[in-house]
Q: What sequence folds into this?
């Protein structure tokens, strides 16, 4: 076996590295190797503790549950309160798979954010995605209004929407399982939008579709505009929360109970949103009237149903949120 | 302010907990709290090291790259070899977002498996998913063959397939970015299948569709059967790897270079797969002939294109894999 060639020596295999470069690279190479060893050890320790913690957590949770049941104690009973609180608090250290919807796409993946900054970055990415997609949605709608007979273009747009809502639903579920206060409804809203987009794809290029398409794309256009306003507000809200979060230096806990109150930017946003929701109601009614003329075309009925559900859920959620925020 | 009621005392708020239960719960409560504190500390340490490591890694990588460029050294140059090796090795400690496709659905999420057992569980979940879905695919195909005029049922099946291939593609990309040796082609194959399923959804209920549907569902039926055989083989392969992995007790590194050679179970599997691929070729040809009769129906052409690509890619990949495994 050959001895390793000394640094900077001529090498039969090819050009050589000057010795100062070698010594520099060797130094950072050694440093990186040492650091990686320390990291592996630290991870090993953390993983061992994680396993132990998960076992203890599950055991204690079971015991508390059994006590609740055996002694018929309500959660508000003073004695049990502290147990329940600790369990809720420490749940942020347990793994999560993001719930049924996410599991249906990704299987058993641990999607717990262990660091506050990771969660913040993810949430920001989610809002930026919505912000960047809004102009695309608007462009699609304008194109569909212009090429109102091009069923291929319309389908492409509808398929894009289906993808878009799957994306949002996945990310929102992940956020929700990491302590976001997002209301269940907004996620359901995106499931319904997803179903609606799929139903639109299956709608054949019939006279009923031709009658409906223009209204649909005008609504889409308005939605895109609302989206821009809304994500602008959400991003501002996020940056506020982020600076608050930084101040408290909590790097492990993910739960965040900061409540944002009714602000001036909301006073502009909410009327715009409410108009959009009235538009949804109008579309729903239009569809039911259309169905009366084209009985047997179930796509019309299904779309009408989706729009009704979206209107009802959105409107009541927005009103409820407003009432909460104004402290009523 | 009231003092806390002593353990086991009567409590105005409701029924009381017997003192032995209280002391038991208190003990496990305290233990859990203490453990969580230790875990938080360990995580804090690990995260700090992780940040430091990521910084060093990026810096060293840049320096090595610069040296490669400046001194025009090839990777095979003996001097650079050890630098490149360490970087490849330690890449398994760096975060990964799973590549473009996964990022398009999930945004900036760290999908690196830091533990061997996590990755194994994920891979197993992926294989089990395929195994559990195969009977469903078969059932769908049988139903579609029986109700050959029910376009709704056919659409439902095609939408299911679109979902199914998105699911597979997501998981395969995640696996690939965590050291799996899966060939790029199999992922591309699932992208193409996904596109094919979407094209089928948009195919109107026309005479051309009626002529094609039976062949399509017969092929689907055969595919489902192949799937069952293939996942059975992959799961057996996985369990072998897993026991090898356990023996070496590597819990941090994810890379795995174990090569599986040509086995007896493969000798049964491969002919079944090859027949399936010939079936794909047959479908492709059928579609091109059909297009000659129904010019202007682009769905026919697009499906034909998808099937041709799938046949070519699958067939050559399988043959190449076989040649590699037999050591040719
Ligand atoms: C009025 C409104 C903007 C209030 O937003 P808000 O101030 O963020 O409300 P909350 O304080 O209840 O938010 C709690 C959480 O839910 C999230 N959230 C609120 N509304 C959301 C929505 N529509 N979609 C996604 N996430 C939402 C927030 O980002 C926040 O997340 P966090 O806990 O991770 O920080 C919003 O709730 C709303 O009603 N949107 C209307 C959407 C709509 O109807 N669109 C279609 C009609 S055109
Ligand atoms: C012949 C075959 C079964 C060989 O499988 P194999 O022994 O697992 O092949 P390799 O050793 O190259 O596998 C390397 C990796 O790729 C994965 N892999 C191989 N083929 C795969 C496939 N078709 N889909 C998904 N993953 C696959 C393996 O699980 C392994 O993953 P790991 O590194 O995480 O353990 C397979 O490659 C094949 O050709 N399948 C045909 C699929 C097909 O054409 N279907 C449609 C026609 S009916």
A:
């Amino acid at each position: 076996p050959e001895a390793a060639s000394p640094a900077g020596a001529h090498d039969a295999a090819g050009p050589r590295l000057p010795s100062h470069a070698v010594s520099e690279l060797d130094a950072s190479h050694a440093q990186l190797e040492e650091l990686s060893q320390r990291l592996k050890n630290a991870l090993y320790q953390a993983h061992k503790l994680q396993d132990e913690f998960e076992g203890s957590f599950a055991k204690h949770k079971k015991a508390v549950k059994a006590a609740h049941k055996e002694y018929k104690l309500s959660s508000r009973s003073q004695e049990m309160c502290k147990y329940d609180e600790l369990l809720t608090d420490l749940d942020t250290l347990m793994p999560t798979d993001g719930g049924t919807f996410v599991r249906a796409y990704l299987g058993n993946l641990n999607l717990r954010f262990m660091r506050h900054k990771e969660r913040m970055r993810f949430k920001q990415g989610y809002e930026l995605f919505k912000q960047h997609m809004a102009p695309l949605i608007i462009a699609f709608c304008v194109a569909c209004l212009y090429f109102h007979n091009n069923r291929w273009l319309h389908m492409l747009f509808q398929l894009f929407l289906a993808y878009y809502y799957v994306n949002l639903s996945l990310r929102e579920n992940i956020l929700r399982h990491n302590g976001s206060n997002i209301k269940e409804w907004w996620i359901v809203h995106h499931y319904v939008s997803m179903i609606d987009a799929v139903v639109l794809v299956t709608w054949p290029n019939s006279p009923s579709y031709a009658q409906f398409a223009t209204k649909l794309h005008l609504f889409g256009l308005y939605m895109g505009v609302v989206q821009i306003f809304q994500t602008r507000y959400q991003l501002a809200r996020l940056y506020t929360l982020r600076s608050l979060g930084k101040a408290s230096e909590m790097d492990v806990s993910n739960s965040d109970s900061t409540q944002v109150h009714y602000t001036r930017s909301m006073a502009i946003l909410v009327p715009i949103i409410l108009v959009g929701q009235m538009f949804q109601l109008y579309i729903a009614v239009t569809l039911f009237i259309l169905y009366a003329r084209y009985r047997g075309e179930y796509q019309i009925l299904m779309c009408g149903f989706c729009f009704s559900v979206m209107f009802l859920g959105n409107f009541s959620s927005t009103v409820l949120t407003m009432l909460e925020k104004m402290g009523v």
Notes: Chain A touches chain B through 85 residues (CB under 8 Å). Residues 23-94 of chain A form one domain.
